[in-house]
Amino acid sequence: MTVLLAATAAALFSIGTYLVLQRKLSRIIIGIALLSHGANVLMVSSGRSGRAPIIGNGRADELADPLPQALALTSIVISFGVTALLLALAYRSWLLSSDDEVQDDVEDDMIARRGAPDDELAGAGDPSEPDEAVDDEPVAGEAGP
Amino acid sequence: MTALLTLPVMLPLVGAALSILLGRSRRVQRTIAVTTLTAVLGMAVALLVEVDRHGPVAAQAGGWPAPLGITLVADRLSAIMLVVASLMLLAVLVYAIGQPGAERNHVGFQSVYLVLAAGVSAAFLTGDLFNLFVSIEMMLTASYVLITLGGRLEQVRSGMTYVVISLLASVLFVALLAFVYASTGTMNLADLSSRIAELPDGLRSALAVLMLVVFGIKAAIFPLYFWLPDSYPTAPSPVTAIFAGLLTKVGVYAIIRTQTLLFPADTRPGTLLLWLAGATMVVGVLGAIAQGDVKRVLSFQIISHIGYMIMGLGLFTLGGLAAAVLYTIHHIVAKTGLFLTGGLIEHAGGSSRLTRLGGMVRTAPVIAVLFLVPALSLVGVPPFSGFVAKFALVDAASARSSYAVMGVALLVSLLTLYSLMKIWISVFWSPASDPQPAAGPGPPPGEPLGGPLLMVVPTAVLAALTLAIGLAAGPLYDLSLRAAADLLDPAAYIAVVDR
User: Phi first, then psi: what are they for B298, rounded to 5°?
Assistant: First the structure.
């Protein structure tokens, strides 16, 4: 039983990790949901297994440990709420840009690009050269074949 | 006594519920929020006085005895953090009420803000690892809503990053809780501190590192900081200010609490923490220098300064921990103040981009002063709070002969000065290099202070507070020393929980 739970948790974690690394927000949300299920299964498996923990259902050491189950319930509720919020965000993103792809940080790109001309200066010598090269290329490509 | 521990969590939650019910009237909502947070501040001060006089206090929720029920504990560290946090929450709330746009257009702002307050209080007061998870989730869920408030495209974009990263941290937290419970059979922090000591070395180190990763994501320490400068700047400025002041500091608090309380003295990862601290400081400040936007410069500086707090912890000496506590107090006040000023700059100048702003020392001299005071404090210029905190930190590092990290800390202070002077020169001194055609120079007419009174006053209070901390350094350092002594010898903490 414990091995089965551990294997389930491992499978959920690996599929979830794969999905979270995708670019589409809808896949990321499914990935997050799978990851939190994996964590919850892990949580349930952290206590002793046994019969349903109700008074009168057997001796104390035959019963399952109720605490991890209660904790797992709490964390399921939390992940449920936050997943709903994420779905709303994805919908909002789709409304605003008709796409749910996670975009790069624009500021970061700008700052990264600020460093680029220095490299080109060091390599090519003339800063105006790359622009001309870009302009020429399509013409050369069309003329070639 | 029990009331002082439970009410800082319960009152804001009740206030949040009332605020939703009475959502029609913005004035009633504001009254509820301000009253609640003032009451929480009062209780936090009372709690600090009580704890400082008579030692830690504990309350068992629902009357269930310690390892079974949920314990709320306050020692000096939690009480100090609670006082500073509720003061910031109140100041930023007043600022938000004064600011056009942020709070006025959203029915839910006040109630979500109060839930955030409850989450922060609960995180500081809890004595139970699972309850810490719940408090942090409560705080984070509120923060997800606040950071995307307004629903503009760039907010949704950065909000998604923030939510997904925080959720991954939460998943790891649940996994951590599962491992902790499976190996020890308890969630109570005081109970854990004795049981973790009995675990085999390998298991204990694994738990310690997993804890460091989970709380390191929340606290934005190297190399888990990348989400912060991406997501904070797009939120409305009061929201960014309260996030900058409190959210990462809850992570720092959790790191300090778990690393000192749960793990025996001889197995603490001091050297690892010092390395992380040094890297966090350097990476944060270098990022800040490269940025071209006021809020982004300030966001990278948060990361850099988290490094100082971790450095104080990594020394694991009385002086080091006291310096970490003092630094945290100083940082919360100075950083929140700076972000509030950043909001004022945006309000008066119409943008937060460095190239579009200029000459504000003439058009808005009050904002210039309000920026300069916390900025100099952050750098560590006497007589402001940063000087005292940094001096305590450097003193503690030299007492333990950790000269490498001490040198890094001093160098990073200089670079912090450089990055802040960059803001100072381009926003306040030089003319705008790429002026906006739409926005006129200077604040709107009728606002000689550079913004509405309710925005300027809280910012000024925080600026005055950072000066006051610098001037009252003696008593505050003594208090931090007593808090650090509690942390290094948690016997009183454990005893009051078990009683």
Answer: -65, -35
* Residue of A78, A103, A107 lying closest to B296 (CB–CB): A107
Distance CA B154, CA B148 (A): 9
Residue B292, both tokens:
């071209």
Element containing residue B73 per DSSP (H, E): strand B71-74
Calpha distance B162→B160 (Å, rounded)? 5
Quote the domain boundaries for residue B398: 2-498
pLDDT digits (tens, 9 = 90+) for B241-274: 999 889 999 999 999 999 988 888 777 888 889 9
CA–CA dist B318, B29 (Å, integer): 44
What is the total count of domains within chain B? 1
Could you report the per-residue pLDDT of B37-65, keeping only the tens digit for each? 999 999 999 999 999 998 899 988 877 87
Query: Tens of pLDDT along A99-117?
Result: 777 777 777 777 777 766 6
| pLDDT (tens digit per residue) in B76-100 | 999 999 999 999 999 999 999 888 7
Closest CA to B312 of B410, B217, B414, B396: B396
Cβ of A74 within 8 Å of Cβ of B161? The answer is no
Q: Tell whether A42 lies on the interface with B, counting CB pairs under 8 A.
A: yes
Give how far B175 is from chain A: nearest CA, Å: 5
User: How far, in Å, are A55, A71, B170, B184 from residue A45 at the CA level?
Assistant: 21, 12, 18, 14
Integer Cα distance of B183 and B207 in angstroms: 10
